[in-house]
Sequence to fold (391 residues):
Amino acid sequence: MTERSITVGILNGKRISFSLCGYDIPDGNYSAEYADGKIRLYGNTHEVIDSLSANEILFTPQNDGAFFTLHNVTIGIQFHWQRQEDQMFRGSLRFIIDGEDITAINIISVEDYLTCVISSEMNANASLEFLKAHAVISRSWAYARITQFSHHTLFDVCADDHCQRYQGIGRVTNDNAVRAVKETEDEVLVYDGEICDTRYSKCCGGKTELFSTCWEDEDKPYLVCKEDQFCNTSDREILSQVLNSYDMETLDFHDWEVHYTTAELSSLLQQKLPEFRGTIMDLQPVCYGPSDRIKQLRIISDQSDITIGKELAIRRALSPTHLKSSAFTITRMENGFLLKGKGWGHGVGLCQIGAAVMGNKGFQYREILEYYYPGTEIKAIDSLTCRLVDS
Fold:
């Protein structure tokens, strides 16, 4: 590849089923399995292909139309929309050993990766300006991880919501995403000469949040708390542009509520928090971020008194999967608790629903980026050296 490539971890397990079309072995269905410290490859008729049993296997495309399919890929891991689906990808497919499992990794150019990301994070039918804004922040996020702070050792980024959604070429249903990536080619968001850590969430609930409320105890000058006048919409046409089919199952993303009986919440907390014991008596916010997201929460029972945080830990503890956000109020009921909240996600940086509304109203992508990342500028990046150049 002449472009910068990125490695994406997609699937992990003892056995992975996949299909190849246009690669360096015959087209067909295969499976890779961990066995005795090696990866064992099974062919179309389930025979072992001994010549391809190794510590690592790489399949390289032989033509521009080549693609591979990974079967039973889990998306939305530990979220309420978790499910499995088959996904198709371009680029190379690499299998490596990870403990006593194997991991499937896609090696693909950054720009092709981005086309799939912005079609997975939202619907490819979204407005062009919104898609262009997202292409810039998704590219910035990716390069920041490649150059500054990747947390993975086996690959640059994962394919699920923990990083950026990357669900393959099947999500690219029209030319909008291709055009958005092409028209912003090599553009990244920069502050004070450094590529920005361009966080984003589905819906901020009316106010964006600070970095330090959700992650390390530091703040970034371009990730500010501000009122968002755009994100509260019930316009199904706009929502259908930004939300993929399974996201449309969640339409109470701006205002929502959850009710637990005392017994339900006690049982849930016993499952989620090893240090929690007994019967829940009270939930007390200790401190908030400026968007009213709870940063630390005190949980009092008849046998324990613990404090948890930050926002993701709170969302995980108070739901079988994740609460939509930690921006909620707590009302003690006669036999339980009512949580009334706002927003879907951590709320830091760009609000996807708000940005979609801005795009629909005619805002240009540079205006959308300035709104959510004030004080930043757009620069071009040399994809091979990762050095910023004049755009």
About this structure: The longest strand covers residues 5-13. The longest helix spans residues 128-149.
